[in-house]
TrEMBL record:
It comes from Symbiodinium microadriaticum. Residues 1-41, 362-434 are annotated as: Disordered. It comes from the Eukaryota. GO terms for biological process: phosphatidic acid biosynthetic process. Transmembrane segments: none annotated. Residues 378-399 have a biased composition (Pro residues). The lineage of its organism: Eukaryota, Sar, Alveolata, Dinophyceae, Suessiales. Residues 563-691 form the Phospholipid/glycerol acyltransferase domain. This is Phospholipid/glycerol acyltransferase domain-containing protein. Keywords: Acyltransferase, Transferase.
Amino acid sequence: MLLCSLPPSPSQSQSTSPRSQRARRGKGFLDEEEEDDGCGESGADVVCLQEVEANGEVLRVRKWSVPHADNQPQQIAAMCGLPHFTFSATLTATFSKDSLRGGEVLQHSGDGRYGLCILSRFPIIRSRQLSFNRAEGSPGETLFMDQEEQPRGALAVLLDMQEEDAEPMWVVNTHLSHRIASKEQRRQAAEVLHWMDELRSEDLPESDRATFLLAADLNSPSFCPYSSYSVIAADSRWKDLWQEGGGPCCCSATFPANWCGGFFGTRIDHIFGLCLEDGPIPMCETARVVRETPADELASDHCAVFVQMDFVVAPDVCSKEEVTVHQFTFGTSAPIQLPDFSQMHKSPRQEVKSLRQAGHGEELSLAPVQEVERSAPDRPPLPRSPPPAIHRPPPPSGAQPPFVSPRNASPRTASPRLPGNWHPHMPQQGFYGQVPMQPPPQMYGEPMICTCLSIVPQLGLETSWLDPLVALAMGSMLGKLCVGCFGACFALNLLWATLFMRFVGLLPMEKRRRESICLVVVQAAWRISLFFCPWVSISHSDDTAAEWRGMQQKMEGVTEQPLMVLGNHASFLDVIVATCCMPASVLIKCRTYMDAHLFAMPLISTVCRSVGHFPVYFNSAEAGVFKVDKEKNEKVDQEVDKHLHSGGWLCFYPEGQCNRTPDQLMPFRYGGMKKALEFDARLISVVCHGNEKVWPRKMKMGGLPGSIRVSCKQLAPDGVKALVKQLRESKDISAEDKKGEDFELLARHLQRVMQTQYDDMNGRAKED
């Protein structure tokens, strides 16, 4: 929820409060008294709602909702006393269950709608709608909203503020992707910025002078790089009103709404104001999270953010006339002459802040002083010193700009500044001011050092032979800090997960059910750990969701042919990433081959035994040497066969060991191929790129900043026997390959296909 209040004009007694909140039926939002407390008593003049439902008959639109036939925008507008509103449906659908995946399915229907809504006390001159481009294409007949890219968009209205000197205001409401720090989320944020620029350029009499306010559920905290917030904050024209108003650091969480009074959670709801060179300046006085009453937390799963602000026009202080600022101290005043701002590189507001600092925090005013002629006094005036003048010459040409704090930087200046959530590895191309935006560092080496080299001049250090040493030290400290935080997150989450799995092991239930519950717990622990490590970014290819969906549909009702998941192995992080990326309906049936020494490690051994993974006993721990204990592994193979015959699925790494050259996949071992042919399994691949840079093979703990890409592809959707038959009949396969056994032909083919997957991701990573 987002609240924004503007001070009233003399002709208007109400406050103007653009507010954004989320309507969630089934979570307390149906109570009219609570809802009226949330909107009506806030005095909001503009309300922005996300995920609002408007049904023509009794329907259930989403799994978070309940069946109803309410027109929520109309009802909420009546409760809040706001006569003007507009609604934009991002999707028309109804909810149903899918037995295989155990999740939601949205079937397209015109009777159930949900989307964005803006309510206003001021008349709406016009409205505009935007539908985001979907990388996965248009939704099909069904849509799994917890795993696929949802249809989302933005809604904008132009408000008539009903004052002679008040500019019309564009209010933009949007709700971006829930996939934090994803390419999808960043793309949607960029689309919103481009769309608002188009609104400003419309051939309308109001567009050239209208102010802009962006109220959004970005699903991203302000400190997270590679996120929608970082994209918007990188545009210096947009000012975060929470930071401008000095919003508190404590109790500032807006999501979840009912977590210990805001101590836990994060603030993912934001309000931005547009600040232009020749336009009004958004000024914010206060910012806070609204949670005074229980209704504030029950009306939605998001709490409101209240911002008191106004758009003001900067005084014309660049004229030739002198402007004086009076400093009041103990009832006396001494004029201070301001310099000619037209010759400076700083804005008047920055100079006023500098004067305030020079005056030891004493209050200053920018109001021009009108000199009044006075008659000569009876006695001569006492001698007084001339007024102190503040002169700040412009910096010499070619000099490096000083580091400007985000709190003191003005978006209206031409001098470079850093955004409020500046991060040395923000996903930007080109230059932002004088700071080159480098790609994410891959390891302790050159990329991170180059990034630190670009920061050295901004810290006021002169370029010299010491810069590489300083950059090396900074890169090393940054990497160690990231690794330490990464290890702490994983250890804490692994600790509570193992305790929970110990408890599940005591419950009187079937072993397979206990293992499935433990797998879901492990997946939750890994995902939480990665969520609190935003410097590790995980993105999926555009066809990943479609590949999983297609394979699951083909596996529906099939019990004789198990599913086997193959992956490339370059880091210990491979297992964690694959676990996080798998759909839960697939994960609960999968068991994995794991190195036997993991079953002897603290905490990790509890995980491996609780979820039912299968150990692989090696005779040699030397890198590049593949020798296994056949006697012990025969017993493991019997357990694997029993698992597959009972309807279970298998996940393994056909390379057999951790690859020392990740860019080139190692030859696939024949044991997994024989197992796949024995059961005529259906195959799907999970290929990861970048794991070895986040968690290098030789490091005991990973967590270095980097980007991980995941791609999935159906390798044998109809079974490996059908695939081998197709390969032997294909003219693209050489005669030499066809001479070998079926498992040899299958191994070489799968290696080529997965190598192509990896090369495609590697090429896209270099382009980005």
